[in-house]
Amino acid sequence: MWCGRNAPPRRIRRHTASKSASTAAKGGVRRACPGIVSITRPFDRTRYGSQIPPMPAISIIARTRRKDDHGRVPIRLRISHRGEKRFIALPVKVLAKKWNGDKRRVTGTHPDAGEINTFLSDLERAAFSVISRLERAGTLITAQRIKDEIQEEREEVKSAPEDFLAFAREKVKGYKRRGQIGTFRSYRTTCRKFTAFIEETYGRDEVPFGALEAELFREFRTYCYEERGNSTNTVGRELGIMRTLVRHAMKEGKLSAYPFEHITIDSEPSQKELLTPEEVERIADLEIDEESPAAEARRWFLFAYYAGGMRFSDVATLQWQHIREGRSGRPRVCYKMKKTADTVGVPLIPEAKEILCRYEEGDGEDWVFPISEGIDPGNEEALHRRKCQRNSAANRHLKELAGQAGIEKRVTFHLSRNAAAWKLYQNVGDIYKVSKFLGHSNVEQTQDYIDGFVDESRDEDFIAAMT
Length: 467
Fold this sequence. Notes:
single chain, 467 residues, alpha+beta, DNA polymerase, domain 1, hpI Integrase, Chain A, 3 domains, 3-stranded antiparallel β-sheet, 10 strands
């Protein structure tokens, strides 16, 4: 890298012929379904003699030639066995440009990546379960029979009376599995509140999907105001989360009518603090002890700002493998945002590189900053706890630094993201590009970040025109 070390990119090891051969030599047969999984089962010579039996292949494919007006393509399950192929159309359409044909999944930048990929993985597991059951039964296996069994199972699941509360809890657990602990806890709290509302109002502990009507959610809104004493924006957040869970149910075909069509999500404008790029530089120019905790917090804050407005959770979990050279030879920071699981990548400007050079470069999974030091990358709960602790400590230091810089505002770490958004918008002038830099899924989010900043860039033109 720029500090004198340029490690080659890490490669993913794949199964080789020799490994497969050694598996067969031990009495097993290894067959890989292209781009999906590898299955190892014992070779029953009493059934097949010395000939290795053919294995059914399951794969998920995108019909790229069936693109609709919105750039989406249908997905289907392909079953191949003994030269016979059968297909099952799936209730999923994906953006063609976000489909990874090798992995047979949508990329992390797809708006519904987590939900779609989880659905596809569950479907694969169900398909392989069907194949295993047929093999154990000793029945003749054909591609058509596998298809019929899979469809029969799916119909049974679809026709079974389901509970929306159980469905919602499973969806919420998905955020935890994907490492989105903050979102998981927020959604879990809302689900618990909605469950309490159902129990207190109706004396039930389940809600059939057919009962999800607009009136039910209007009653829930009243319950939040009158029984829980929630504020307008809190109620709006609770309804927004329930709306998201309802949309998940609709995408899986569990609902035909959309109960939120005529429900307004409550909100009221709130006064938010904004930190200008000039004020950020005033904090950067303060002369303080570089070995102090305040200086350490400032380095995290400034790196977040110079890297395009990173969230604290992303700074806390930044690893050296996320810092690498792009095709142009420029060093870049490329990471998956903890909040949305979307991938973001921007080039590192000199100020950001200068901060990084203060830290000893480690191996790929080593933390860049000491925020998460001593915690295993796979321990999401511990990472979340540490993030909350260090974020609070950093905010206290930033408040002190702001006072030293003569800034009479309640400065927090997140304000670096707003300041970066405003500086990018001032210099780029294209809100769509700024939205991409920030990793937003739509420009409305970006607009909310820059609302409230005073644009003085055209003041001279106005004065010249009016005088």
